[in-house]
Amino acid sequence: MRILGVDPGLTRLGLGVIDAGRARQARMVAVDVIRTPSQDSSDVRLGRIADAFDTWLDNYRPDVVSIERIFARNDVSTIMGTAQASGLTMGLAARRGIPVAMHTPSEVKAAVTGNGRADKKQVTHMVTRILKLDSPPKPADAADALALAICHLWRGASAALSTPGATKDVVDRQRAGRQGDNLTPAQRAWAQAIRDAR
Asked: Which is the catalytic residue, given 19, 63, 107, 141?
């Protein structure tokens, strides 16, 4: 299974792709941060994010997208931009029929470090260790995106995936070239159950 983790933000949006191996081991495929200039208008910034995110979906063909669930903060302007970027990535994934999972920051921290209150330094350290990287991913948004993907790998089977539907049949999407390869037996069984229910 290939998972694309998204740490949403309007100024910096972290993206991290991992592949699941045996015994739920993770291997990093790609990581980056999409940056947009704060002096540009929101629509232009979101357009740049959309273009870059579409390119990542084309290039890496994830089986699922794991996005950080947004919580209210005191800074309304920051939360608005983060929510806009989050919604944009959800919509772009949904348009292609790629399932979306949402994970809270506490869930991600607990999955990766064992402590739901871990700081960014601890998360980055564990991501580096789990993925056997030579150096920590930088900036923190990159490490957070990989942590979201790892969290989904380890906890995603019971996490809140978006509702399956006729347009989310993983086998049909694979045949159409719209998603990653290497389906797990559980994904194949799920796809078959959806086909049988039609």
From this structure: 141
Selecting among 63, 68, 144, 169, the annotated active-site residue is 68
Q: At what angle do helices 140-155 and 105-113 cross, to 10 degrees?
A: 80
Based on the residue annotation, tell me whether 141 is a catalytic residue of this protein: yes
Of the residues 7, 107, 144, 169, only one is catalytic, namely 7
Q: Answer whether 17's CB lies under 8 Å from 31's CB.
A: yes
The rounded distance, in Å, linking the Cα atoms of 179 and 76 is 35
Nearest alpha-carbon partner for 176 in 184, 164, 168: 168
Which residues, 6 or more positions from 132, have their beta carbon under 8 angstroms from its beta carbon? none
- Whether 34 and 13 have beta carbons less than 8 Å apart is answered as yes
Of 18 and 189, the one with more pLDDT: 18
pLDDT, tens only, 131-188: 999 999 999 999 999 999 999 999 875 554 554 444 454 455 555 655 544 455 665 6
Contacts of 5 (CB under 8 A, 6+ apart): 14, 15, 16, 17, 18, 65, 66, 67, 144, 145, 146, 147, 148, 149, 150, 151, 152
Q: How far apart are CA 125 and CA 191, in angstroms?
A: 36
Active site residue 107: no
